[in-house]
């Protein structure tokens, strides 16, 4: 069983965390020189926010692995796993049309595929130090829901939405937006319970080995 303190884990977390931050930075550099660029719009994409947070979090764990023993840090690690899974799944189900627009191909692959997989593998490979209560796991849904509220509210004010499924004209009106939000909420709740269950299974197995 891998531990946060061993150097291969720290090195991989540092490399992939740096890759996530580099990908976000490269995409920012590509767009910042374009006419009409809005940094607020750029950082209003859940993909950008989740990958930025996950990248910095992985770097933090790599540089200070002892923090991973804290209950809060483990809860946050589970949250990051859920948020990146959300990024990958929503992209695959609702957004992957083959048209990348301004997004660099390698950045698209890193942000929507590589980092989500890395976070999930990290959660499975590096055993959590403690169980996550399923009630607390469901609290992970709070951040994506707040993000959706922010996106819809700002969209009404500035007439700009980060994703097509949040635009009433693209999905058949407010009812279509609500249907997509409900579907996403159910999906995130299911992923949250799955991530918590997978972590708790690993914790239980570790405790049984220790007792034996």
Automatic annotation (TrEMBL):
Instruction: Check the record and name the InterPro entries matching this protein.
Output: Pr6Pr-like
Keywords (alphabetical) are: Membrane, Transmembrane, Transmembrane helix
Asked if the Swiss-Prot or TrEMBL record annotates the protein with the keyword Secreted, the reply is no
Give the transmembrane ranges. 42-63, 75-94, 106-125, 137-157, 177-199
Cleavable signal peptide: none
Name the chain's protein: FAR-17a/AIG1-like protein
Instruction: Give the species this sequence originates from.
Output: Haloactinomyces albus
């Amino acid at each position: 069983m891998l531990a946060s303190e061993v150097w291969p884990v720290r090195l991989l977390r540092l490399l992939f965390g740096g890759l996530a931050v580099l990908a976000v930075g490269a995409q920012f550099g590509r767009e910042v020189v374009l006419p009409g660029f809005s940094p607020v719009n750029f950082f209003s994409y859940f993909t950008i926010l989740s990958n930025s947070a996950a990248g910095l979090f992985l770097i933090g764990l790599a540089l200070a692995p002892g923090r991973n023993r804290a209950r809060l840090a483990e809860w946050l690690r589970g949250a990051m796993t859920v948020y990146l899974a959300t990024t990958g799944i929503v992209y695959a189900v609702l957004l992957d049309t083959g048209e990348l627009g301004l997004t660099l191909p390698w950045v698209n692959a890193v942000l929507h595929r590589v980092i989500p997989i890395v976070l999930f593998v990290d959660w499975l490979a590096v055993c959590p130090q403690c169980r996550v209560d399923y009630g607390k796991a469901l609290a992970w849904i709070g951040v994506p829901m707040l993000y959706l509220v922010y996106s819809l509210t700002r969209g009404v004010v500035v007439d700009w939405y980060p994703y097509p499924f949040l635009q009433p004209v693209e999905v058949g009106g407010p009812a279509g937006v609500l249907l997509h939000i409900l579907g996403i909420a159910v999906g995130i709740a299911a992923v949250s319970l799955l991530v918590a269950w997978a972590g708790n299974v690993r914790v239980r197995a570790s405790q049984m080995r220790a007792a034996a």
